[in-house]
Amino acid sequence: MQELIENFLNYLLVERGLSQNTISSYQQDLNVYLNFLKSISLDSFLRINKNDIINFMLYQKDKGLSPNSIARRLAALKVFYRFLVREGILKADPTSLIDSPKLYKKIPETLSLNEVDALLAQPNPRDKQGIRDKAILETLYATGMRVSEVVNLRQDNINLEVGFLRCVGKGNKERIIPLGKKAQESIKRYLEKSRPHLLNKKESEFLFLNRFGKKISRQSVWKIIRKYARLARIKKPIRPHILRHSFATHLLERGADLRSVQEMLGHTNISTTQIYTHVNKDRLKMIHKMFHPRP
What we know:
Mean pLDDT: 87
Low-confidence stretches: none
Largest sheet: 3 strands, antiparallel
Number of strands: 3
Number of helices: 13
């Protein structure tokens, strides 16, 4: 059973081109499932039926897992069993008749324009790491990129002359995102004043570096965001994607169309982008009042 899971993870990496973070999530969910099967003395995927999978979901619920986490684990199982059927290991998919639980889509936490300004003003412009941190924060807010995408940016992904960058996102899908003037200026200053110092005569293809001249990690960027949010005295819960959520929210508030925001965020399904439309309620009320014959 463990060998089949390893084969599946290799398939996700080689044939599907999924990121290591996504593959690690699949691995974690499938290992939890495997441990459950062992606990009820099931030692072969051939012996498993729909009821066993439903019992697994109920077991997760009894352990206090959230509906979102249970739905994610079921989604992982569905992809895994489709793989087993495709490879001819199973004749039928026991998850095919199991529906995912309907989930409440939580509105993402965002920063106001004033809070974003306060956050971006915190890095010290005279300090080498402060210059780098400013460039990272400006890039995150200017592009709506995921933290994992920003840390994997390479120098040749950036074109400061035309003001665009090339982002490689989930599933190795590429997208082109405009860079605002503020972000361009911050990145240019970082390249001139900070990056050579961080490199210290070493070489790296990656744009953003740590103090050892190596690619900065997701965890480090996460710490940077929290550090400056604390200095800016922002009281909201700060999560890694808060600048991504703020990017999408502020664009839609100012009249950007949903399809363009979807493309810049790299969402496959527009329904994922629609979660940000909650911010337009006041604007929609204003439009309704202006144009409806009976406001």
